[in-house]
Specification:
- By secondary structure, this protein is of the alpha/beta class.
- It has one domain (3-173): Rossmann fold.
- It is 21% helix and 34% strand.
- The protein contains 3 helices and 9 strands, in the order E-H-E-H-E-E-E-H-E-E-E-E.
- The protein has a 6-stranded mixed β-sheet, sandwiched between helices. Strands 1-9-8 form a 3-stranded antiparallel β-sheet.
- Helix 1 crosses helix 2 (44-51).
- The structure holds inosinic acid (IMP) and magnesium ion.
């Protein structure tokens, strides 16, 4: 079996949406200096684009979480691997995610970060696989709702590949 990629969200639509999210976040945090917490590795590209469109001062941190292993279904056993050191106590946090699927990773992250006593925590996810949710999570800023398909590109990987695609695609298995 060979996979073919089918574009779901093209580069232009991503760009437009990132700018829109940035406008909303910039307005809501106009009097604050939030700490954006990017979830590695998937959110790295979204974080780079989103953060550069924000108009207020921000801090950028990254957190490493492992969840999927090598397959295409969520293991729901996400583990916090590391958080780049930086002051979190009393800060306004915005978690920047590539995608929320079952919600396990986001729940883990929120409870981990709450322990560090920030002033507030909000969640921004470019993609929301709503139909796959097993844990109710309120995402404050959502880019696109997406279907229950395995997606790659714009940070999302399949076995660590395809993260650098400038668009988001799903994989269709095709017989050779
Ligand atoms: P959750 O814990 O089930 O919500 O899964 C969240 C994590 O799984 C995301 O941060 C992604 O890293 C990964 N993930 C979920 N869906 C996809 C997908 O369609 N393609 C690639 N990675 C995904
Ligand atoms: Mg991720």
């Amino acid at each position: 079996m060979k996979e073919t990629l089918v574009t779901l969200i093209d580069e232009e639509r991503i760009k437009w949406k990132v700018e829109k999210l940035a406008r909303i976040i910039s307005f809501e945090y106009r009097k604050k200096t939030p700490v954006l917490i990017g979830v590695l590795n998937g959110a790295s590209i979204f974080m780079a684009d989103l953060s550069r469109k924000l108009t207020m001062p921000i801090r950028v941190e990254f957190i490493k979480v492992s969840s999927y292993g090598k397959g295409t279904t969520s293991s729901q056993k996400s583990k916090i691997v590391s958080l780049a050191e930086g002051k979190i106590k009393g800060e306004d946090l915005v978690i920047v995610e590539d995608i929320v699927d079952t919600g396990a990773t986001t729940r883990k992250l929120v409870s981990f970060l709450k322990e560090l006593k920030p002033r507030s925590i909000k969640i921004c996810s470019l993609l929301d696989k709503k139909d796959c949710r097993k844990i109710p999570i309120n995402i404050d800023y959502v880019g696109f709702e997406v279907p229950d398909k395995f997606l790659v590109g714009y940070g999302l990987d399949y076995r660590q590949c395809y993260r650098n695609l400038p668009y988001i695609a799903y994989m269709r298995k095709a017989r050779k």
